[in-house]
């Protein structure tokens, strides 16, 4: 897999497609999985969200991140507002450097995404610890790493419908 | 700068900073409202109702895979399982016969002593929909809720022992806090000695705290519910003592236990009724009136 960012001209992205991918991420999040897998499975909602924040900043903004955070809160039966806070802060960080991020190649983007998702997790840890939960251990920071490794693959996948030569 | 004649290409609503401020304020308000005051239950109920079809849709293919793999079970497996079940059933029926005589005797004794039989054995079978993905709390979501008249507080068991307790009931689903969750406590006793204790979940496991050093606890002791809280039926197995550390420097012995129920892997669970029928608290003892000089109170008992 080449890590260069795609240079061809793409078809315009439909709002419907953005919605569909976010919905799909929520569905993936809700699949009942054996308990151990949640220790390393990345947060797909935030991955897809970051993709759209970086590539379509005019469509997906902090408000959308907040709403998706609320949905994630309900879907994971966590505390209401925890994901919402983390996602909106991360969305703000991503948007403030969006013009740089979109010029990076996929490897550099993956590094940036790693940083953003680590920030995501830290905000959630702090929020939970302030509300009286115990620290869950450093393995909590493993999913961002795997998420960053999946980033190039995710980018290629989400670009597929918008290539000109694919019908 | 936004002007009235700015082309729509440049216009993008409030700045990200402003949006962040609004969203962060809203989410902090939600966090505080949810964790401190529990204000968001209604909203959560509504949202969960909206998400329920999604949940079902996601579970559907998995359920089909299960059905298919059930269908293609090897015949030898079926046969050996059948044999096992048959021997187990024989053992069970023998024990059941003995239990029935015992129960009859117990009921006779109870009626002799005018004690009400407090067992209420109605139970509902439910299926685990999914485990909460939140690594901070140990919860499972089951597929029965207010539609099956579940109520928060009901104990949940599986084939091996106590699993947890229903903590939140939504229209079609219910949330079960497992005994290993950080805020769960179960009043228990050591089955061998009858010594009462409280089993604390600490997030990922359970332990017995605050038992004095001289308490008679050994490894492999069974820990069962004591039933003195009016919630869990007495005698439900909960955990097994795996290690006892007695440190002369500490005031209490350190007792590590392992939950018996498959807290992370059960598919079907039983929701039991609360024990209920707790007799009212005995009236506060009359505080004897302080003796004042010269006068003697009429009744000081």
Automatic annotation (TrEMBL), chain A:
Protein name: Rod shape-determining protein MreD
InterPro entries (UniProt xref): Cell_shape_determining_MreD, MreD_proteobac
Record-annotated membrane-spanning stretches: 60-80, 101-123, 135-154
The organism's taxonomic lineage, starting at the top: Bacteria, Pseudomonadati, Pseudomonadota, Betaproteobacteria, Neisseriales
Locations listed in the record: Cell membrane
Keyword entries, A-Z: Cell membrane, Cell shape, Membrane, Transmembrane, Transmembrane helix
Record family assignment: Belongs to the MreD family.
Pfam family, one: MreD
Native organism: Aquitalea aquatica
Membrane topology: Multi-pass membrane protein
Any single GO CC term annotated in Swiss-Prot or TrEMBL for this entry: plasma membrane
Origin: domain of life: Bacteria
Ranges in a coiled coil: none
Any Gene Ontology biological process: regulation of cell shape
Transmembrane helix recorded as keyword: yes
From TrEMBL, chain B:
InterPro entries assigned to the protein according to its UniProt record, in alphabetical order: Cell/Rod_1, Cell/Rod_MreC_2, MreC, MreC_beta-barrel_core
Rod shape-determining protein MreC beta-barrel core domain ranges (all copies): 133-273
Keywords: Cell shape, Coiled coil
TM annotation in the entry: none
A GO biological process held by the record: regulation of cell shape
Residue numbers spanned by region Disordered: 273-301
Coiled coil: 92-119
One GO term describing the cellular component: plasma membrane
Family that this chain belongs to: Belongs to the MreC family.
Known function: Involved in formation and maintenance of cell shape.
PANTHER family (UniProt xref): CELL SHAPE-DETERMINING PROTEIN MREC
Protein name per its UniProtKB record: Cell shape-determining protein MreC
């Amino acid at each position: 897999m080449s890590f260069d960012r795609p240079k061809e001209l793409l078809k315009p992205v439909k709002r419907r497609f953005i919605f569909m991918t976010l919905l799909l991420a929520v569905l993936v999040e809700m699949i009942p999985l054996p308990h151990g897998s949640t220790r390393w499975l990345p947060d797909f909602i935030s991955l897809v969200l970051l993709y759209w924040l970086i590539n379509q900043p005019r469509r997906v903004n902090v408000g959308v991140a907040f709403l998706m955070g609320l949905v994630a809160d309900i879907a994971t039966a966590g505390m209401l507002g925890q994901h919402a806070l983390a996602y909106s802060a991360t969305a703000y960080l991503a948007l403030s450097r969006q013009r740089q991020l979109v010029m990076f190649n996929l490897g550099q983007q993956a590094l940036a995404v790693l940083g953003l998702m680590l920030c995501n997790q830290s905000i959630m840890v702090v929020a939970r610890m302030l509300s009286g939960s115990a620290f869950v251990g450093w393995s909590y920071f493993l999913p961002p790493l795997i998420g960053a490794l999946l980033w190039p693959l995710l980018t290629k996948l989400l670009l597929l419908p918008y290539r000109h030569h694919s019908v | 700068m936004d002007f009235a004649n700015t082309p729509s290409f440049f216009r993008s609503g409030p700045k990200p900073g402003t949006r962040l401020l609004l969203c962060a304020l809203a989410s902090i308000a939600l966090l505080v409202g949810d964790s401190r005051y529990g204000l968001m239950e209604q909203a959560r109920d509504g949202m969960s109702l909206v998400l329920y079809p999604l949940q079902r849709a996601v579970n559907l293919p998995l359920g089909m895979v299960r059905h298919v793999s059930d269908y293609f079970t090897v015949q030898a497996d079926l046969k050996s399982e059948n044999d096992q079940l048959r021997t187990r059933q024989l053992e069970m029926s023998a024990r059941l016969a003995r239990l029935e005589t015992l129960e009859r005797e117990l009921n006779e004794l109870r009626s002799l002593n005018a004690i009400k039989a407090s067992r209420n054995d109605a139970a509902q079978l439910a299926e685990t929909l999914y485990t909460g993905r939140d690594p901070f709390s140990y919860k499972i979501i089951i597929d029965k809720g207010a539609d099956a008249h579940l109520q928060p507080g009901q104990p949940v068991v599986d084939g091996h022992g106590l699993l947890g307790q229903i903590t939140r009931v939504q229209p079609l689903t219910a949330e079960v806090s497992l005994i290993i969750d950080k805020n769960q406590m179960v009043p228990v006793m050591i089955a061998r000695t009858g010594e009462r204790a409280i089993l604390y979940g600490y997030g990922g496991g359970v332990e017995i705290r605050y038992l004095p050093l001289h308490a008679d606890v050994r490894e492999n002791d069974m820990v069962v519910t004591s039933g003195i809280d009016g919630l869990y039926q007495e005698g439900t197995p909960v955990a097994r003592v795996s290690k006892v550390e007695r440190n002369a420097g500490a005031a209490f012995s350190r007792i590590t236990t392992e939950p018996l129920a498959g807290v992370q892997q059960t598919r079907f669970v039983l929701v039991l009724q609360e024990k209920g029928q707790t007799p009212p608290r005995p009236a506060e003892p009359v505080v004897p009136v302080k003796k004042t000089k010269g006068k003697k109170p009429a009744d000081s008992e």
